[in-house]
Amino acid sequence: MKRASFLSSNLSRDHLALCLQKCLRAKGKGLRPGKQVHGVLLGSGMNMNVLGFGSKLVGMYAGCGDMRSAKFVLEKIKNPNVFALNWMIFASAYNGNCEEAIGYFYLMQELGIVGNKYTFSIVLKACLGLMDLNKGKEVHAVVEKLGFADDVSVGNAMIDMYCKCGSLCYARKVFDKMTERDVACWTSMICGYCNVGETEKAIVLFERMKLEGLEPNDFTWNAIIVGYARCGDRNGAFVLISRMRRAGLVPDLVTWNAIISGFAQSHHAVEALEMFREMILSGTKPNQVTITGLLPACGLLGSIQTGRQIHGLIYRMAIEVNAFVASALIDMYSKCGSVKNALRVFDRVCAKNLVLWNAMIGCYGKHGMVESALQLFERMKKEGIKANEVTLICVLFACSHSGLVERGLEIFNSMKESYGVEANKEHYACVFDLFGRAGEMEEAYQFAKTMPFAITESIIGAFFNGCKVHGRRDLAKLMAEDILRMDLKKPGGFVTLSNIYAADGEWEEVQNVREVMKEKKIHKIPGFSRLEKRKEDNNVGIEAGLFSNIGTIPFVLQHLPLKSYVFSFPYRSK
Questions:
Q1: How far apart are CA 444 and CA 461, in angstroms?
Q2: 0.85 cut: is pTM over it?
Q3: CA 119 to CA 113: how far, in whole Å?
Q4: Across residues 303-308, what is the average pLDDT?
Q5: What percent of the chain has pLDDT over 70?
Q6: Rounded Cα gap, residues 14 and 7, in angstroms
Q7: Nearest CA to 297 among 331, 321, 348, 343?
Q8: Average pLDDT over every residue of 181-200
């Protein structure tokens, strides 16, 4: 009687259901009142199947991040509905447990529960989180079977999954079959093409989208402009920015950051700096993301003057130097040959993360300061920072540059036991370089036979260089036949092998190597040297036997107010 009285006088069933719904919407803040409602339900002896209270509780706990309680309640429900399982799938995927999310999807199928459009949108994102194309195809088959393929949100999730898992042909088939497409679908397909450098197909879709009466949004414009930036197409990016402005949209900070980063990542440093100038002139203030995307361009150019000016800009614009900005500065100074400035940046950061330690250890290693690299590595461990795979690459690299074979092998052999890191291809490449620089080419050759995966281009380069320097042409020739059959993309290994054959007067083999390079469309990029004076920057290159001045790259930041910074940028002379 007391229990019935409690419900009738205070809280009705409908009111309790509404309370749970509000707790779910409040997310983390709703956990405490949600538990109180759960307590009232338990105290009243309420049947959890009435009004779907059990499923609502699962949704409330999962939505508030309490997965343990959500699982406990789910196990008590005899017949969970699609709402409860959708929340378990969503919360698991949201917390990064994509395997678990897909497991709940399989449970749904075992129980004979038919999913809805929300189910498939979330499960496809979980497949993407695992980068598991096969699981994605399985979900796609269920989508087709149940007739959800025409749903816009499900179709968009499939396109996104296929594009990001590297299967553009399947993405395009889904896209073409859709009877209705929204801006998100078009943008996902355009992004897919841009991410693999197929900007021509992306721009065709972009124009077709407009012809079908859909206006691109900020994300669409951003995707297509960044696609051109990643391909190094400065003119194309500028044309699209102008079109974007004419359409009444202004590139925001996110767009500028993506463009600058795109040019820097595609090794078009001058264009990245030029876009930075345009960004400043447009009145957009850079942030930490801008700086971390821009500084690699200075490293690519080897221009310490430009790097210092950007470093000064950071302070003039009061941009906080966090660990990521600091690591980008260290990397830039390292590539420009200034260990002193890199160390100064490192010492000024109070809260050092692993990325920062790795950057400074790597800086020492690149400059042959192996003792400093190893001392910093030991100091890092004493401060409780656990090394990762990048740290160990930096340390092995330092050992190889100093010929410390025993120390390097000791670290390599203890990686799994001491640091919990499985050796990958980069670690093996460092060991090859270690043997090569020490002249132990026989050991390197035997080491190649024990590798658990195929030889990489960096390993080939290290091995051939070692054979050339230490006169072990016999070992180089032993590996040559297998290497020529490999699908290599870089010219380094081929050029060194050709030089080894030429040194022995084996001109037929030299011609054979060149023919293979020609078939694979691999070309040796002309080298250049950089000469930097106080007020000018020159690249002197050699191509087809002719010296040429590639251009000057002055980059001047005047001490002016934020919206009045003046930049002088280079244009390559033809």
A1: 12
A2: no
A3: 11
A4: 90
A5: 78
A6: 10
A7: 331
A8: 91
